[in-house]
Amino acid sequence: MGVDLGLPHFDAGLQELGELARTAGLEPVARLTARRKVPDAALFVGRGKADEIKALAEETGATEVLFDQALSPGQQRNLERHLGLPVNDRTLLILEIFAQRARSHEGKLQVELARLQYVSTRLVRRWSHLERQTGGAGVRGGPGEKQIELDRRMIGDAIKRTRERLEKVKRQRHTQRRQRERQGAFNISLVGYTNAGKSTLFNALVKARAYAADQLFATLDTTTRRLYLDDEEGGSGGRSVSLSDTVGFIRDLPHGLIDAFQATLQEAADADLLLHVVDAANPHHPEQIEEVQRVLHEIGAGKVPQLLVFNKLDALEASQRPRRPADRVEIEGTPVRRLFVSSRTGEGLAALRQELASRAAGASASMQPGDELHDAAA
Fold it and tell me: For the whole model, what pTM was predicted?
C-alpha cells in the first residue's frame, strides 16, 4: 500500500517496496495506491480506502498488509483492528531484512538495538496481555504495576546493555583504524545505494569472496581487505591500500538503523576516499545518488573526497553506453570524476585501478605484504 503525498518518485518507491518484501521472504499479491494531501490521523489512508484494502485482501487471500510509509503506533493499531490483519510499515520491513542478513556479532548487535528502539514505541500495539496488572506485595513489578510498564522497563534495560556492548565494538574499530593509520594505509570505502554492485566490485578488485547477490541488502557486515594497485598479483613492488565494503543505503533508511550502524558507517566517515558506486542501469540513479549524499552528510562523511563509479556497464543497451570511459559530473556543486565499469565483466577496472593508484600516490600507503586485513565484523 502506497500513499502519494505529493512527493517525487512515488511509483519508484512503491516498486522498491515490492523488492523489499521479496527480499524479506514475502510474496506480493496486490498493489494499491491512494492520493492524499496529508495522512489521516487515525487510519493513515482514511476509512474508505481502508475498506478497499480489506476487500482486496480478502479477494487475494493476503495475510499481511505493508505500507510504504512509516506508520505511527496508533495508526498501525487502528489499521490492524479495522482490517483484521497484521499491518507493517517500511521501517519494520527493513529491520526484518537486516535481522535476517546480519552475520557478524557486531551486525547482530546493531540490528538488535534498532529493533528494540522500534518496538519500544509500539508496546501498545497488539498484545492484550499488556493490560493486565501485577498486584500484591512481594510480586515482581510491585503492587498495581501493569505488564506494559514491566515490558517497557525490560526493553529499556536491554537497550542499555546493547548500547554498552556496541560501545565496546566501537572502541575496537577505533583501535583497528589507528593501527591502519600508523601503518600509513590509504583508506578507501565503498558506499552507494543498495544493490548497486558494491560487493561484486569489491570482490573483483581484491579477489575476495565476500557475499554478493542481486538483491537488496545482500551485505550488512563491513569487510576490509588490502588492495594491491601497481601489482595485481600482490607482489612486493605493489602499492597497497585498505579497501572496505560497507552496508548499502536506501530511501527512508530508518534513523534508528543509521544510529545503530554508526560504528560500521564510521568506516566511511574516516576514509581518505569514497568509491560511490552507482547502478548505471537503474533509471532512478539520480535520485539514488541524492539519497546516498544525504546519508553521507548525516554520518559526517559529506566532506570526504569521492570518486563516482558507474557500475553495471554490461547491463546498458548499446545506445545508452557512454562515449568516454571517464568524465566529470557535478555533485552538490562540486566536480567529481566519474568512471564507467562493469564489475561482472571487468570492463573499466584497469582504469579504476590506475585512478586509485594516482589518488594514493600522495599518501604513504606502503604496508608489509601478506597481512590480510580483517576487522571485527569480517
Answer: 0.73
